[in-house]
Automatic annotation (TrEMBL):
<dbReference type="InterPro" id="IPR018247">
    <property type="entry name" value="EF_Hand_1_Ca_BS"/>
</dbReference>
<feature type="domain" description="Ice-binding protein C-terminal">
    <location>
        <begin position="168"/>
        <end position="193"/>
    </location>
</feature>
<dbReference type="InterPro" id="IPR013424">
    <property type="entry name" value="Ice-binding_C"/>
</dbReference>
<keyword id="KW-0732">Signal</keyword>
<feature type="signal peptide">
    <location>
        <begin position="1"/>
        <end position="23"/>
    </location>
</feature>
<dbReference type="Pfam" id="PF07589">
    <property type="entry name" value="PEP-CTERM"/>
</dbReference>
<protein>
    <submittedName>
        <fullName>PEPxxWA-CTERM sorting domain-containing protein</fullName>
    </submittedName>
</protein>
């Protein structure tokens, strides 16, 4: 009986995890507090916000760039804008990876030049590192509006499709608690079954 209960519990847990991972979901995230490179000071209320929509198609607990349909950063969808790219203009997500319930990593931005590639500029955000704008001319290359991640930068993320709680794959310890509970239930049931029947008291 315990074996059947354990197998049933594991199957139910696996199905629940697979369903949560496969369903398309939207997450909102924010980074707050950056070092202002231009003014050489930490700005506590400087914020970068965004969202992304996708699903863990291959059930590995990680959402990669190929598994998202939307990635919005400070109001720009860096997945959708790539459809307007040309030899002289670029907009897109170079890198994306989200470990369910854990770390978010990405790189996105824009770039543009004239046909001769003499004048140009762009905007870059690399999670965990920096956000900045840049321009170049034959005479100079400048970088401005740069904000750097620090140990004081705060990160938060919420899942809109699960009431603010990001689905996560249970850790081994969680499975151990589930199986222990099933074992206790099975043990009580077996003990009651083996106990001799007591005569009715009148």
């Amino acid at each position: 009986m315990f074996k059947k209960l354990a197998i049933a519990g594991m199957m139910a847990g696996s199905l629940a995890i697979s369903a949560a991972a496969s369903a398309a979901n939207t997450w909102q995230f924010a980074y707050v507090g950056f070092f202002d490179e231009d003014n050489w000071m930490f700005v506590q209320d400087r914020t970068i916000t965004g969202s992304f929509t996708g699903s863990d198609v291959n059930h590995d607990g990680i959402i990669e760039k190929e598994e998202i349909t939307e990635f919005v950063l400070n109001g720009t969808d860096y997945m959708a804008c790539s459809s307007m790219n040309s030899p002289y203009n670029y907009c897109g997500t170079d890198r994306f990876r989200y470990e369910l319930g854990g770390k978010l990593d990405f790189s996105a931005g824009t770039a543009g030049t004239d046909p001769e590639r003499i004048y140009g500029g762009g905007y870059v955000v690399r999670a965990g590192i920096e956000e900045y704008s840049y321009r170049f001319t034959p005479e100079s290359e400048t970088r401005s509006g740069a904000y750097l991640w620090t140990d004081e930068t705060r990160f938060s993320i919420t899942s809109l499709s699960s009431g603010g709680v990001t689905p996560a794959v249970p850790e081994p310890g969680t499975w151990a608690m589930i199986l222990t509970g099933l074992a206790l239930v099975a043990g009580v049931a077996r003990r009651r079954r083996n106990e001799p029947l007591q005569p009715c008291q009148r």
